[in-house]
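Lay summary

Proteins are chains of building blocks that fold into shapes. Our project writes down both the chain and a compact code for its shape. Here are two examples, one after the other.
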Amino acid sequence: MLNELVEYTKKHLADAEPGFTTRTVRWSVEIAADGRFLNLVPLGDGKRGEQLTRCPDMHRMNAGGKAHFLIESAQSAALLFKKGEDEKRMQSTAQRHAYFVAMLADAATTVMDLMPLVGFLRDDTRMDALRAALEGHKAKPTDWLTWRIAGQELRQLTEVQQWWQAWRTADQAPSASRGSEQDELSADTMVCFLTGVAGRPLATHPKITGLSGVGGLSMGDVLVGFDKSAFTSYGLDKSANAAMTEEAAQQYSAALNDLIANHSYRLANTLVAYWYRDRILPDDDLMALLMGIEDEEQAEAQASSAARKLLDALRSGKRGDLGNNRFFALTLSGAAGRVMIRDWITGNFDDLAAAVTAWFDDLAIVAPTGNSLAHDPKLLGVCAALVRELKDLPPPIATTLWRLALKQLPIPQALMVQALARFRVGLIKDEPVRSARMGLIKAYFVRKGDTYMTAYLNPDHPEPAYHCGRLLAVLANLQRAALGDVGAGVVQRYYAAASQTPGLILGRLIANARNHLGKLESGLAWWYEERVSDVMSRLGDGAPRILDLEGQGLFALGYYQQLAALRASRKGKPEGTKTKPVESADTNHTENTTFVQGELL
């Protein structure tokens, strides 16, 4: 994994170099050549800011009282605080600000272009104007600032970068006064864990940012770190336990930071970062299809169709440019200042195309309206189908679903049962049915080898449990047609029991159906008799007395698909007509049976 991250940096991040990093900078402070404050310019899209490369990155920041050179936060550079800020924090920030100004003054003795900035920072009136502008734009203390003098970006000046490189090299050199324990680079030479080349190991590795929304710290987290003695061995100190040179550590951290910022998706309480060995066009990004299409026009075309089209082009040789490509995917989260690698998946691009196509095919399910397939669900939508609120989803479940999709693995029964439980709760509470939830239950059976399980209603399915669910859907519709909205109807009162012990419940509901039929017009009553009789004819010797978990899953699918078929068949047909409507797009069953009253025991 680390090797692939290094290769990513070498191939795509030419500016990556120890001592520099890419930061998302929110504001550009415009200063005149004589040091006057001119303007505060927002960067980026107005929300996240703009990613600026080759921003100086200070080492040993944990030592306290230090600041980054030139590019800093509004709090450290301009002393912008939130209301009610802690006095102790304000004092420590004042130390960082003093360090920030002193370092710029030191640089200005060599790089004269920095002199107006130093004068600006030492002028209280001008700094008050800057803080007023920041507050007027509702800037946050954590927003990063860059500086332009007379239209010139200071960060990009060659003299500025050269000064920083020289200063940093001198500051990191081992010295007797600091002691080797505090040095960023050890005086001893070791074989680099990542490159295999001998070099001085880095004691503290660069921070990985962007994981604050999934358990990480806003200041960043470490991927390689040994801050407790229990983590160390052989008498080695800090990151010497996994010795890497500064260049190697910079390369893997630069790759991770770039992927998190530009090529990642939030998946419940985790973050999925992915890339391809060779860059591809946005239309060929299968990972983006899997995570969910945002564009409405593309969504109408269905992600499954796009994935299948790409797969066909690969297999026919039309897209030879993608045939030898590879994909890489990391699932990340943060915990106590550390980067948690929850999963690492890599493979061929054509295998990915097959996996994504299979995922959408297996989850394909009729829409609740019954007249078309539901839109292909985002992976996040599938995650949300398992819990009441997405924040309740444990990170391992999101990681598991991601792996199931990329590797075409069977759906664990535990996930099917979890989706089934949420479906049952939703019915009792009369909540809208999530098609992604039903699609996941269907995918469980498809990946177990159930060739009868289709996206639409299948009257020829061999399992009685499936037809028991169908029967409950017909009886629920019959009650509504006869009585209207009665609050807690057949489904709310009997679904849980019927799905577990259909032999004990459905017979009683059948016996009561005649009362409902008597309240309908003759044509509509005949239509419902046909529906009930047709389903009952599929039960053979009768409804099972008890259903196991898989039987309950089939019951739910039968109920859902039959309900969708009833909704589709009734559209455009006035109640009371005697013509028999088509039940679904997948069946032309026309068997005419007689409604049989009595217990189904």
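And here is the second example, written the same way.
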Amino acid sequence: MTNSYDTLFEPLELGPVEIPNRVYQPPHGNAYGLGDQQTAFRAEKAKGGFGLIIQEYSQIHESTDVTPVDPGFLHTDETIEPQREMVEAVHDHGSKLFVELWHGGLTASNYGSRQPPLSSSQTPSGNYYTPKEMEHDDIEEIVEAFGTAADRARQAGYDGVELHAAHGYLISQFLSPFYNDRDDEYGGSLENRMRFFEEVIDSVDDAISDDMAFGARFTIDERVEGGLTADGEGLEIVERIGDDLDFWDLDIGVKQSIDDMIGPSRRHSKNYQIEFIEEATEALDVPVGGTGRITDPRDAERLLESGALDMVGMARQSIADPHWPKKAREGRVDQIRECIGCNICVSQSRQGIPLICTQNPTVGEEQRWGPEEYEQVDEPKGILVVGGGPAGTEFARVAAERGHIVHLNEKERELGGRINFEGSLPGLSEWKRVRDWRETELDRLDVAVHTGSRAEMEYDDVRTYGAEIVVIATGGHWSEKGVTSGTHQPVLGWDQDHVLTPAQAVDADLSDERVVIFDEEGYNVSAGVAQTLADDNDLTFVTPRTSAFQETLHTFERKTIYSDLYSAGVDFVPDHTLTQVDEESVTATNVYSDETTVFDVDHVVFTTMRKSNDDLYRELKRNEETLTSETEIEEIHAIGDCVSPRRIADAVYHGHELGRNT
């Protein structure tokens, strides 16, 4: 039985512009800059059925930049032409393209321009610099610059513009008492704090054409002490301006509460922002859009029908599956790749590294890989895949899409590989979508999947299988030795029974024990194991890094992890490496002073290094000449953690890449 989701696909008028449906991509960065890659990325979402796409935050003046991140630009005339090409590419698929006008204020580093960041007030930035409090001449210049940038957007052919009045950037720095402590006509009362925003609105309104839509992205609840709230001034601001704009694109959070703004699945369940937005939707006479990890068409339809939203925003979900609307409309909901909320996308782009996605390895590769397009092979091959983790299942899926005859053998009872363990850790259950979607696709594509002990493959099993192409995707394992990048040596005493791997520690069901975790991973496994053990044990967390969980800083999970572990009484010992494990104690050595500290322990857990399970692959390669001359085997490959243990996203990409090229 299918559901056409009629409400989702009703057209919607945003001022003078009719949007073909209620599903839109809110502005989000990708560090692609302007050009062919950006154009292909946005156009793919239009091809996939997103009725409205809003191009990412675009610089309106040379006084703000986020070097080394490469965002959108509207501060010079040279930026018009590449954006016109992007507009045309989106229009080719029947969608509309707006652009977000942005000035970063104090949150922009200005590493490129080396100009002092501007802000409403001289408040702390959290970095080594303090911004300049804008003088009246500065205010006048920036207000004019918003209008000039809007005129460039008009020349580029955009269907509309959206002011970035959110996330603690310049406009919201004037609006919010958390940032604004001015005592002139731009500070103090709400009326005064709104003055800059209203002047910018007037400047932009004068610059755009009558057939362009005009709205704003606005943080209705800043989620910080002393900031705007959805039941206070945040709501009052949207009510005061009301239908002076054609639409509102609402969300929550600023830089100081970024783990609420772009909430990872470890911290927030799906649809988590709606409770902050729905009252504004009811209060306004113009359409309101909202986000908050909306991934399920049934939820999206319900939010529209209930009046909580007028249009449904999907940033991360549009990355995970740019064809979400098309699949929903055609009743192919089980083919939707749902976002897992791991935030690897934003973790890369905010560091100036081109955006990627765990679920969708074609992100950024749209010029050569259409996410729903596969070049069919002229001569199908019989392929054996050994290992059913992220790399193996992705390769098998892509190879089958291209017309090969694929068998996948996994020695465990279920597919998933490392996903099964990592997805069982606290807050990470949605990560199992990496496994579940691929398992569903393998079934749809009639891939022969064999699991359990009878599917375990050794050298002779592969040799006699009859496959023409063999792909080894046997994953990796946690080293039991505690080797780190700083020592390259096993920890003395590593081979004792009370030294555990992460999986052993979770399976052991420890209680009332003294446990030391020795970590250099700094990411989801070390955090998840610590969260699992913290409540029932006396836990000490030792790491040679300056702080724990450094990899979660950019995925916005760190606050949740630390809050949980500090509440459970975990002791953190940074800047130390474990140098010896004894029967009832461990010795930790400071990496800078060489001073030692002894901790009493019952168990030690190492989350320091993963190694490849590559024995089968190496044996096959050693005998490759014999195999290719005496059996049907033509090619032997290894993919994923079997080659190099990395992130899940890297394993998926590696499997996808080989599938495209086989």
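What can we say about the second shape? DSSP finds 23 helices and 28 strands in the chain.
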